[in-house]
Automatic annotation (TrEMBL):
Its main location: membrane. The lineage of its organism: Bacteria, Bacillati, Actinomycetota, Actinomycetes, Micrococcales. It comes from Georgenia daeguensis. Residues 25-438 form the Major facilitator superfamily (MFS) profile domain. Keywords: Cell membrane, Membrane, Transmembrane, Transmembrane helix, Transport. The keyword Metal-binding does not apply. It is a multi-pass membrane protein. It holds the Pfam family Sugar_tr. PANTHER family: SHIKIMATE TRANSPORTER. Gene3D superfamilies: MFS general substrate transporter like domains (1.20.1250.20). It comes from the Bacteria. This is MFS transporter. Signal peptide: none annotated.
Length: 460
């Protein structure tokens, strides 16, 4: 149980935000991360549904694996985005990074919607696609750390889990928006029309979403923790060097916590289930529209469980909430493919909904957990780089691994074992950590923050 009390809500009075400021920050982070993840997910959906046919058409029978590989390529560049954003964010603030990442992601997404196909420009088409996907990866690597720190560092100490769940809802909201728009376009432009032009509209809509996100984000104040660091001129000069000199083990453990969630989550956000259920060459051959609507519905259950988990973590502590989440996630993993393989869209939705219950409980508390693990002066670098490494170890190639396992074995049993194994990795990494719910986040408490959260270690 958490041992939080009023004395641990130690946001510096000079920079303490009022309730209206806090709500504005949460709203801005939710809007911004939703736009970012909408952009990221429509790529993954299109990779599973159309990119193999239109961008990799001349590259043989492995075109689907190549298409899913481009989903993973972006993850390899997330650490670059995390390193850049962490370094600049710890030196110049959280807000400026959020503006830059939003614009980069949106521009890359919009340009994908304008790309010529393989039939038009040959091998240049997949090359340009990969380059734009790399830009998306750099942007995603820098986005998350800034968004969650803005929310958590503005939050009252007793409600960090709930406030931190705000930007976390950007994933299910982005999934909801992306799958909903894709499903709508599948209705408006069915069959060949979807391959020819229907898939492009969701990418081009990103322009509008960027303008909305930019407008909202530019109105929020800088994080009070960074504001105090800047006022005292205590910004870290070499934050990444300090991070790896003192906190390497912590970065690895934190990354493994996220990897356990991310590998499982990318069964839907990475487009694998959509492709598996709808491919004419696969065992189910379901219609594209109903499957996309089922994914859209599961995004709602993910959204709700993410918010609930953030609030629960304020009562039970981050560690206990995570352990509960890993148990729920394992149940969802074991039930997923037996339900999907029935070929019934209603049962497919049930499988996804059950899975997202566990995903919400292993994702909702993550913002507060990560923020409480690292000292204030290098916190942006710590959370961003841990997140990026966890994304590579978890979700980067999860859809491609799943496709390869089914191709090699002819069944989904191996995929279930793979996802169950990643869930257990996340559970073990969580058990290694102490619960630091409610630890003061300001620069006055760096000595306390430096004490290792890893069991058995007193200093990092």
């Amino acid at each position: 149980m958490s041992t939080m009390n009023d004395s641990r809500d130690l946001t510096p009075p000079a920079h303490s935000p009022d309730l209206a400021d806090r709500r504005r920050v949460v709203f801005a982070t939710v809007i911004g991360t939703t736009v970012e993840w909408y952009d990221f997910f429509i790529y993954a959906f299109a990779a599973g549904l159309v990119f193999g046919e239109i961008f990799f058409a001349g590259l043989g029978e492995n075109r689907l694996l190549l298409s899913f590989a481009t989903v993973g390529v972006s993850f390899l560049f997330r650490p670059l985005g995390a390193f850049l954003a962490g370094h600049l964010g710890d030196r110049y603030g959280r807000k400026v990074i959020l503006m830059v990442t939003l614009i980069l992601m949106g521009l890359a997404t919009s340009l994908i919607g304008l790309l010529p196909t393989y039939a038009t420009i040959g091998v240049a088409a997949p090359v340009l696609l990969v380059l734009l996907r790399i830009i998306q990866g750099v942007s995603a690597g820098g986005e998350w750390g800034g968004a969650v720190l803005m929310a958590v560092e503005h939050a009252p100490g007793r409600r960090r889990g709930l406030f931190g769940a705000g930007p976390q809802t950007g994933v299910p909201l982005g999934l909801l928006l992306a799958s909903g728009v894709m499903a709508l376009m599948a209705m408006i432009a069915p069959g060949d029309a979807f391959l020819e032009w229907g898939w492009r509209i969701p990418f081009l809509l990103s322009v509008v979403l960027i303008l909305v996100g930019y407008y909202v984000r530019r109105k929020v104040e800088e994080s009070p923790v960074f504001a105090e660091l800047a006022e005292r001129k205590q910004e870290a000069q070499m934050p990444i060097l300090r991070l790896f000199r003192r906190h390497t083990v912590l970065v690895v453990v934190a990354a493994l916590v996220f990897a356990g969630n991310n590998a499982v989550g990318y069964m839907t956000t990475g487009g694998y289930i959509q492709n598996y259920a709808t491919s004419p060459e696969g065992p189910l051959g379901l219609d594209r529209g109903p499957v996309l609507w089922a994914v859209t519905g599961s995004a709602v259950t993910w959204l709700i469980s993410t918010i609930i988990a953030g609030a629960v973590s304020d009562r039970l502590g981050r560690r206990t909430t995570y352990v509960l989440g890993w148990i729920l996630q394992l149940v969802g993993v074991l039930a997923l493919f037996p339900l999907v393989n029935t070929g019934d869209v209603g049962l497919l939705f049930a499988g996804l909904a059950l899975l997202t219950l566990g995903l919400g409980f292993t994702y909702g508390p993550q913002a507060a957990l990560y923020a409480e693990l690292f000292p204030a002066s290098i916190r942006f670098s710590g959370v961003s780089i841990s997140y990026a490494i966890g994304a590579i170890a978890g979700g980067a190639f999860a859809p491609m691994i799943a496709a390869a396992l089914v191709q090699a074995t002819g069944s989904t049993t191996a995929v279930t074992l793979y996802l169950a194994g990643m869930t257990l990795v996340g559970l073990l990494a969580t058990l290694v950590l102490r619960d630091r719910s409610g630890i003061p986040l300001g620069p006055d408490h760096e000595a306390e923050q430096q004490v290792s959260p890893i069991r058995g270690l007193s200093k990092v």
